[in-house]
Amino acid sequence: MSTTAQGYLAAAAAAAGLVSDPAVAERWAEPSALAGMSVGALAGHLARQIFNVEALLAQGACEDAPIPLLEHYARSAWLGAAPDDPSNVTVRDSSAAEAAGGPAALARRTTAALGRLAARLPGEPLDRVVLVPWGPWPLTLADLLVTRMMEITVHDDDLASSVGRPAPALPDEVTDTVVVLLARLAVRRHGPMPVVRAFSRAERAPATVAAF
Q1: Is residue 19 part of a domain?
Q2: How far apart are CA 48 and CA 41, in angstroms?
């Protein structure tokens, strides 16, 4: 199994464990760390990083040429959009819909989807092209998994913070991949020197080099 697939499955397992945490169920209806989302909706959004990969693997073959990973983010409507932008409203609504059955149901669905992916993903070629419907545009499976690792890592922290838990520990191959992606997105947004200064010169560091 490739390092990318292995890393994604490790990240997905951490996400499934967090979705199933009793603290999430206890605070299900409370506001989360993300404005406009309950803890339950945020758990639903985290679970979607597993559900969506399974759904895309179930598609038929896509014959279109994939776009590069950074182009995926350049085209994404949610990047830099206001909270009430339709792209962000859609994310919140779909996340809440995933959570509508309650915490136990979401935990069961997430664990079951993870099990199916663990059996299927090792046999999938990483250069396979999948059509990402929320684009819509094509990505390689490898790049899709990188995008989902980033989403899981960021939203693990959001959900854990929302319920007073530490963020799940993730393997180095996941965090390394996510940090590199976020750094590249930060450079695209702010330019290289602000990012270099943020990493190396506290006295000249900008107030933020957030990737989004």
Answers
A1: yes
A2: 10
**pTM of this prediction?**
0.95
Q: How do residues 72-113 score in pLDDT, each as one tens digit? A: 999 998 777 787 888 788 889 999 999 999 999 999 999 999
* For helices 141-162 and 3-19, angle between their N-to-C axes, nearest 10 degrees: 30
Token digits for 75? 């085209």
In 3D space, the residue among 62, 14, 5, 10 whose CA is nearest the CA of residue 168 turns out to be 14
Helix (H) or strand (E) holding 139: strand 137-140
Q: Are 15 and 110 in contact (CB under 8 A)?
A: yes
| Domain CATH code at residue 13 | 1.20.120.450
Which helix H or strand E contains 132, and what residues bound it?
A: strand 129-132
| Residue 197, in any domain of the structure | no
Bridge partners of 31, per DSSP, are: 38
Phi/psi for 137 (5° steps) reads -165, 160
Residue among 139, 158, 175, 135 nearest 11 (CA): 175
pLDDT tens digits in sequence order for the chain, 212 residues long:
789 999 999 999 999 999 999 999 999 999 999 999 999 999 999 999 999 999 999 998 899 999 999 999 999 987 777 878 887 888 899 999 999 999 999 999 999 999 999 999 999 999 999 999 988 999 999 999 999 999 999 999 999 999 999 999 999 999 999 999 999 999 999 999 999 999 999 999 999 999 99
Q: 43 is in which domain, residue-wise?
A: 3-167
